[in-house]
Amino acid sequence: MDKESQVIQLRKEKINALKEKGVNLYPNDFTPSSSIKALKKIIEETPDILGEKGEQFSMAGRMMAINKMGKSSFVRFKDGSDQLQVYLQKNRLGDEIYFLFKKLDIGDFIGVKGPLFQTRTGEWTLLAQEFRLLSKAVRPLPEKFHGIKDPEKRYRQRYLDLIMNEDSRQIFIKRSKIVSAMRRFFEEKGFMEVETPMMQPLPGGAEATPFKTWHNALGMELFLRIAPELYLKRLVVGGFEKVFEINRNFRNEGVSARHNPEFTMVEFYQAYADYEKLMDLTEEMFESIAKQISGSTKIEYQGDIIDFKRGWQRFSMIDSLTKIGGIDSSIISDTQLLLDFAKKNNIQITKKDRHGKILTKLFDILVEPKLIQPTFITGYPVEVSPLSRKNDVNPELTDRFELFIAGREIANGFSEINDPEDQNNRFLMQVRQRDEGNSEAHIMDSEYVEALEYGMPPTAGEGIGIDRLVMLLTDSPSIREVIFFPHMKNTV
After folding, report:
1. What is the mean pLDDT of residues 303-309?
2. Taking a C-beta distance cutoff of 8 angstroms, is the pair 413, 462 a contact?
3. Could you state, in order of their start, the residue ranges of all structural domains in the chain?
4. Sign of the C-alpha dihedral, residues 5, 11, 17, 18?
5. CB atoms within 10 A of CB 448
6. Least confident range of 46-60, 156-170, 253-267, 438-452
7. Residue 146 above 90 pLDDT?
8. Label partner for 33 (CA 20 to 30 A): which of 140, 224, 288, 368?
């Protein structure tokens, strides 16, 4: 029997002994009057009301350290906000209660009540006048000194990670604040928050492989959404001119430091706006969130200082390929010369790929990793932009942008197609690509085209990856650090 199993066996023996004495190991009748965080604010602002004869407080939390000293003991416990020390004395609590305390372990939840006093070292401590067991833990917590170092264990047993690692707790506290700040920003700009279906009869709004499911009552196949885009634009058709959704998307693709098959995005749409207006709006939003979360427009991410101050770089895709990617401008419009260039540089591209797709693949390899500061790339080819409005000057390109920070895509936005005939033709082009073997190409959505035929105002829309934004603002190297329960391969 290993050490942990021995500890669990000893704890179970304690549990049985306490049950035989009639101790309720899991009561549900204790309500704390304050959190430790609130108590520390009182200590800071009105310490004169404290002391052994002062106000009493009832507190609850998990025991994290125990120092037993015969007839008195010190315990350090934590609630959801902070940690506090409590002092227990046998002569105050009585033999029965103190006996119960001596049978408890680190990890157990307790309730205590009493005044605050300062120890000889000046630490504010709760003097227990009352003591309760609130929940008995069977399994031991990891050793505090060693913590949980194995990332696999941290992700699979996130609850232990949150108990033992304050840095992990702070990441998720910050994540919550980032989402709240984003929601406030949109609401202050007059956007309405909405909800659209997560199970859809047709997967649409992006090029990706969907997850499939089956609805028994309807007798039909459904897909977990890969994006909410086509439903949000239906709402714009219906007259809601500024909408946003903080949404969960599902894409049946690989798992990596930047990808999780289930992820969070915000998508928003604004009537009578174009893609350039959304770039301005995005700069304003990111600058605002950075200031609220980090206290500055500058953050450090994996050794790079990134500045969210407005006035970000903007390049067309063609310019980025020549100025950053190192491709000679004389070959940029020649498909065969680009294929020769790719082969010479060991970049895998098939001859079946259309010109626009070749440009995009070269961009992914040669340019994207170099875009550390916030940078908008515009002018995406029509072939890779099935829902984006064609540019009036060059119809081979679209009024679309992607935002890159720290060498990765963070956002994608464009002026929307509101010409139903153009949208229908784009879908047909995607259908041809599916027939040619591109399983992620968009499916024909005739109902969406029908919605456009009722008329949609000029509109622009954008999707922002919230998980990746949280990675940036918490200096997290992997997306798994910012998702409570990332998907993991079965160990069995």
Report:
1. 98
2. yes
3. 3-135, 163-325+367-481
4. negative
5. 23
6. 46-60
7. no
8. 140
What kind and span of H or E run contains 166? helix 166-188
- Residue holding tokens 């899991």? 26
- Which residues touch 410 (CB under 8 Å, ≥6 apart)? 403, 404, 464, 465, 468, 469, 472
pLDDT (0 to 100) of residue 50: 82
Q: What is the pTM of this model?
A: 0.93
**How many C-beta atoms lie closer than 10 Å to residue 255's C-beta?**
14
**CATH topology classification for 3-135:** OB fold (Dihydrolipoamide Acetyltransferase, E2P) (2.40.50)
Q: How far is CA 369 from CA 110, 256, 305, 323, 365, in A?
A: 51, 16, 16, 14, 7
| Residue % of the chain over a pLDDT of 90 | 84
- Computed on alpha carbons and rounded to an integer, the radius of gyration of the chain in Å comes to 29
- The average confidence (pLDDT) of the chain is 94
pLDDT at residue 145 tops 90: no
CB 40 within 8 A of CB 116: no
CA distance 316 to 319: 5
Q: How many helices (H) and strands (E) does the chain have?
A: 15, 19
pLDDT at 393: 96
Predicted local distance difference test score (pLDDT) of residue 29? 95
The total of other beta-carbon atoms located within 10 Å of residue 219's CB is 7
pLDDT higher at 350 or 390: 390
Tokens 């001119």, located at residue: 241
Nearest to 114 by CA among 59, 56, 75, 35: 56
Q: Which own/partner contact pairs does 479-483 have at CB distance under 8 Å and 24+ positions apart?
A: 479/256, 479/257, 479/258, 479/259, 479/260, 479/263, 480/151, 480/155, 480/257, 480/260, 481/168, 481/171, 482/171, 482/172, 482/175, 483/260, 483/263
List, as one string, the DSSP characters of 302-343. TTEEEE--S--EEEEHHHHHHHTS---GGGTT-HHHHHHHHH
Residues 6+ apart with CB under 8 A from 92: 127, 128, 129
Fold that domain 163-325+367-481 belongs to in CATH: BirA Bifunctional Protein; domain 2 (3.30.930)
Arithmetic mean of pLDDT, 269-291: 98
Between the alpha carbon of residue 162 and those of residues 109, 176, 179, 180, the distances in Å are 16, 15, 20, 21
Q: Is the pLDDT of residue 101 over 70?
A: yes
pLDDT of residue 76: 97
Residue where the block lists tokens 């969210």: 308
Confidence class for position 70, pLDDT limits 50, 70, 90? confident
| Residue 204 · residue 193 · CB < 8 Å | no
